[in-house]
Design a protein that fits this description.
The chain is an alpha+beta fold and 299 residues long. The protein contains six helices and 18 strands. It has an eight-stranded mixed β-sheet. The radius of gyration is 18 Å and the shape is globular.
Length: 299
């Protein structure tokens, strides 16, 4: 069975500033939390069925490999703030690790990624989350995917943090750019446990068991995909944008105006430039299916 989107990570240099930016976008941003075993800090934005993570404090990573991996984006490589990794759902990390090794991959050890959390009633708790990365080397490092397992789902998803002024209900999809589909599609297939639902010379599209999508475009198609500029990067493959499904587009529009965030709106789709969302182009629509993708993305 194909996997679903568990959460996305936006890596940022200034965690406080990024949290403020997402509050202006109309999201309910949870207080800063710390991964005690990993060393990093984050802010979580909860949706229904998946979630969003602003991640920082990479210099405190306990694992030297992870510290080098994340720090490269801000120190050795151009890039800066932006989408860095995508986690897929998993029910058995050990079994998936064995499967990936059989397929010729080199996944990481299973890591304890638990963090503190304060529940809706004010009581302190901690998640029981574990993860496993399936590393990709430079220049394809920024397409690294990983699996997450949550032993205590009630510490990951709970109200009131799933209710947002912009009325976002769920993360509907993610867009990547790739300069070589032959190098990237087999890796995504193995991680999603699915072949693309659509594939052309310009675009590949995968659909998940939970109904989300992962879209991969070549550079030519990327230029026609968005109503806002795409930040220039030196990466061979990288995540560019997120699509959110909202309950009410009018309320979303008002939340952005209240936050002073400029946006472009066309045919039922609101788009916010990367500079206002910590490096991630952000789209908002009342529809999550791929028929709502702009025509430029459907060659």
């Amino acid at each position: 069975m194909s996997r679903s989107l568990d959460h996305v990570i936006v890596s940022v240099r200034d965690l406080d500033a990024a949290a403020e930016a997402y509050c202006r976008l109309g999201f309910a941003v949870m207080p800063r939390a710390v991964h005690h075993n990993l060393g990093t800090a984050n802010h979580i934005i909860q949706f229904h069925g998946n979630y969003f993570e602003l991640l920082g404090d990479f210099h405190k990573y306990a694992d030297p490999a992870m510290r080098e991996f994340m720090s490269a984006r801000f120190e050795g490589e151009p890039g800066g703030d932006g989408l860095s990794m995508l986690s897929l759902s998993c029910t058995d990390l050990a079994a998936d690790r064995e499967r990936l090794i059989r397929l010729g991959h080199t996944p990481s050890a299973i890591m304890n990624s638990a963090r503190e959390v304060v529940l809706a009633d004010g009581s302190p708790d901690a998640t029981a989350s574990s993860s496993m990365l399936n590393w990709r080397a430079a220049p394809r490092r920024w397409s690294t995917l990983f699996y997450s397992f949550h032993g205590k789902p009630h510490t990951i998803w709970f109200e009131p943090w799933q209710t947002h002024p912009n009325t976002v209900q769920t993360l509907a999809g993610i867009t990547y750019c790739s300069d070589d589909f032959a190098a990237d599609v087999p890796y995504v297939n193995d991680m999603l446990c699915a072949e693309p639902a659509e594939r052309t010379a310009q675009r590949c599209l995968w659909q998940t068991a939970q109904g989300e999508w992962l879209e991969m475009l070549n550079p030519a198609a990327l230029s026609a995909r968005f109503a806002v500029p795409v930040p220039a990067t030196p990466f061979a493959v990288w995540p560019v944008a997120l699509r959110y499904r909202v309950r009410n587009l009018g309320a979303c529009r008002q939340a952005l105006r209240d936050g002073g965030v400029p946006f472009v709106e066309h045919a039922g789709l609101i788009t916010v430039a990367a500079e206002h969302a910590a490096g991630a182009i952000s789209e908002f629509s009342e529809r999550s299916d791929t028929s709502s993708l702009p025509q430029g993305a459907r060659p």
